[in-house]
Amino acid sequence: QVQLVESGGGLVQTGESLRLSCRASGSDVLDYVLGWYRQAPGKQREMVATITWGGATYYEDSVTGRFTISRDNDKNTVYLQMATLKAEDTAIYYCAARYIDSSQFSYWGQGTQVTVSA
Questions:
Q1: How many CB atoms lie within 10 A of CB 22?
Q2: Alpha carbon 96 to chain centroid distance?
Q3: For 48-100, how does the pLDDT look when each residue is reduced to its tens digit (9 = 90+)?
Q4: Which of 7, 12, 32, 94 is the most exposed place for a label (fewest CB within 10 A)?
Q5: How buried is 75 (Cβ within 10 angstroms: 0-12 exposed, 13-18 middle, 19+ buried)?
Q6: What is the largest CA-CA distance in the chain?
Q7: DSSP state letter for 61
Q8: For residues 82 and 8, what is the distance between their CA atoms, to the nearest angstrom?
Q9: Residue 31: pLDDT above 90?
Q10: 76 Cβ contact list (under 8 Å, min separation 6)
Q11: Measured between alpha carbons, how far is 49 from 67 in angstroms, rounded to an integer?
Q12: Which of 112, 116, 108, 45 is nearest to 80 (CA)?
């Protein structure tokens, strides 16, 4: 199992940047794919970006070119650098993990609020 703790949310203005962090702990953390999801009010949770410990990344179309996911293997931490933020990026952002052989993200952090004011 893996435990996830996010940090770094907050209130910013349109066009500003923000970085989220997610520290993973537990056994065999390197065997997990980590990612970021978000859920805006009244909407379904959606995948934002994922990264394997080997560095392979995936981005949802609306954040491509604006968000960057990265990881620090020594610190077991994954980051989401968000730039040129828009009001529609406002959501609760969740760190998530899935075992490398699994298709489902089964482990979740508590979430961190990101609010982008127009």
A1: 26
A2: 7
A3: 999 998 899 999 999 999 999 999 989 999 999 999 999 999 999 999 999 98
A4: 7
A5: exposed
A6: 42
A7: G
A8: 11
A9: no
A10: 23, 24, 25, 29
A11: 8
A12: 112
Question: How many residues are present in the chain?
Answer: 118
Q: Which amino acid makes up residue 47?
A: M
CA distance 33 to 87: 28
- The kind and range of the H/E element at 95 are strand 91-99
Q: Which amino acid is at 13?
A: Q
Q: Which residues lie closer than 8 Å to 54 by C-beta, 6 or more apart?
A: none
Query: In this structure, how many other beta carbons lie within 10 angstroms of the beta carbon of residue 96?
Result: 24
Provide the residue type at 48 as one letter.
V
